[in-house]
Amino acid sequence: GYNSGWRLPTGNELLSIVHFDASAPSIDVNYFPGTSSSAYWTSDTYAPIPSSAWGVSFFQGHTDPYAKASSARVRLVRSGP
Questions:
Q1: What residue spans of 1-81 are helical by DSSP H?
Q2: What radius of gyration do the chain's Cα atoms show?
Q3: What pairing do the DSSP bridges indicate for beta strands 6-7 and 52-57?
Q4: What is the pLDDT along the chain (81 residues), one digit of tens a residue?
Q5: Burial environment of residue 61 by CB neighbours within 10 A (0 to 12, 13 to 18, 19 or more)
Q6: DSSP 8-state secondary structure symbol assigned to residue 44
Q7: Between vectors from CA 25 to CA 22 and to CA 26, what angle results, nearest 5°?
Q8: What predicted TM-score, i.e. pTM, was given to this entire model?
Q9: Cα angle for residues 30, 32, 34 (degrees, 5° grid)
Q10: Dist CA 57 CA 65 (whole Å)
């Protein structure tokens, strides 16, 4: 089913698929076709401003805090089988 372990990745998990030798998008498009160069949410809250969360931009593979009220893309990960 759709509710079996899917979640937002942590910042470290999402950064682990960044391909720094590429840009716009900075990801291996053979494994992740159709990836946008824009920001993707992580599950990590930005501690200095709890109304913000970390996101990973696949334009150049960097992290930035984004207001939780703003829109960004998601790439879900799955825990377990």
A1: 11-15
A2: 13
A3: unpaired
A4: 556 788 999 999 999 999 999 989 999 999 999 999 999 999 999 999 999 999 999 999 999 999 999 999 999 998 766
A5: buried
A6: E
A7: 40
A8: 0.88
A9: 100
A10: 10
